[in-house]
Design a protein that fits this description.
It is built from 16 helices and eleven strands. The chain is α/β, with parallel strands linked by helices. The chain has two domains: about 140 residues, 3-Layer(aba) Sandwich (Rossmann fold); about 230 residues, no CATH class. The strands form two sheets. It has a seven-stranded parallel beta sheet, sandwiched between helices. Helix 3 links the parallel strand 3 and strand 4. Helix 4 crosses helix 5 and helix 14 runs antiparallel to helix 15. It binds magnesium ion.
Length: about 375
């Protein structure tokens, strides 16, 4: 039985496809406010519970689903309750809003198929302090997780190679980024995703967040993680072992593969995706340009500081980035200003600590009100 939080987003929609393909029951669905889509989804998979974070939208949904047996909940409490309905929680809400449902799922002993990277970025230490069954859905982390399945090498001796498409501005000059239009930013060359993560992929903040996510999830030092630009997106990531062997995971750019793996692990069942065609493309690699894509450098810096000092500057980075990206999507901020806003926040909140859920939520809100775009 699955709970899908963030069911109307890109990962949520793919999860429903996977669940139907595998013949799995869906216990609950939750989303922010998309009444129309969640109603369709509820009629399709017939969950026991659906929840919408937005109270007004939830009222509308209740009327829409009045002829069904599905129970409609609302608000943060409703979403948390939905997160506890199934034995496996697919945590696919976007942003810091995804943290509370993950903690609810952990508390109820669910397996967490984790697609919300902000959870590990802002609250990585907290989330990993529980002895929870967390299987990553993010394609890079799923790849690394798969590569170390048979490994008996301690994590301190591994090197993680995090591959990155380079995004729509690969090879661009700082001047070109200055004039980056929203339209071009949202046209990702390889992956079709939600708006927030697509902007993050264009600034390379997505890879920065994944860097932090990898540090927490696999318990490694920042110096053990290397970002490599790989435009073909065939290798989803790799692990280098102390004997010099590197194991990589290859496949097509289809999120239904890591989603299914996280749900069925350790089993592998017949999937929906075509396997990689070795004759379709060559594989190329290049180093990232941190002078052009400053968001990546800022994320690596925060990871290093938090790792060494026990601080939570990654939470500041995440909140500032979410606020800056929202402003960019609303045409209130230029693309080139995104890293500047994050830098200002990091300067203001340098050395900050936040360990508990409450402290993390307060810090997140404080950073957002400081930025106030
Ligand atoms: Mg990814």
């Amino acid at each position: 039985m699955l709970s899908i939080i963030g069911s109307t987003g890109s990962i949520g929609r793919s999860t429903i496809e996977v669940a139907r393909h595998l013949g799995l029951d869906v216990a609950s669905l939750a989303a922010n406010r998309n009444v129309k889509l969640i109603e369709q989804q509820a009629r399709l998979v017939k969950p026991r519970v659906v929840a919408l974070l937005d109270e007004n939208a939830a009222r509308e949904l209740k009327t829409a689903l009045a002829d069904t047996d599905t129970h409609v909940l609302s608000g943060a409490e409703g979403v948390n309750e939905a997160a506890q309905a199934g034995a496996t929680l697919v945590a696919a809400a976007s942003g810091i809003a995804g943290l509370a449902p993950v903690l609810a799922g952990i508390a109820s002993g669910s397996r967490i198929a984790l697609a919300n990277k902000e959870t590990l970025v802002a609250a990585g230490k907290l989330v990993m302090s529980y002895d929870a069954d967390i299987i990553p859905v993010d394609s890079e982390h799923s790849a690394i997780f798969q590569c170390i399945q048979t490994s008996v090498t301690p994590s301190s001796q591994l090197k993680l190679i995090l591959t990155c498409s380079g995004g729509p501005y690969r090879g661009a000059t700082p001047e070109e980024l200055e004039n980056a239009t929203l339209e071009r930013t949202l046209r990702h060359p390889k992956w079709n995703m939600g708006a927030k993560i697509t902007v993050d992929s264009a600034t390379l903040m997505n890879k920065g967040l994944e860097f932090i996510e990898a540090m927490r999830l696999f318990d490694v030092a920042p110096s053990q993680i290397r970002v490599v630009i790989h435009p073909e997106c065939v290798i989803h990531s790799a692990v280098e072992f102390p004997d010099g062997a590197t194991i990589a995971q290859l496949g097509s750019a289809d999120m239904r593969v890591p989603i299914a793996y996280a749900i069925t692990y350790p089993k592998r069942l017949p999937g929906l995706s075509e396997p990689f065609d070795f004759f379709s493309t060559g594989l190329t690699f290049e180093p990232p340009r941190r002078d052009v894509f400053r968001c990546l450098a800022l994320a690596e810096l925060c990871a290093e500081r938090d790792y060494v000092n026990g601080t939570n500057e990654c939470c500041v980075l995440n909140a500032a980035n979410e606020a800056a990206v929202a402003a960019y999507l609303n045409n209130k901020l230029s693309f080139a200003r995104i890293p500047c806003i994050i830098e200002e926040a990091l300067e203001k909140f340098s050395g900050v600590r936040a360990d508990s859920y409450h402290e993390i939520v307060v810090l997140d809100e404080t950073v957002r009100s400081f930025i106030c775009l």
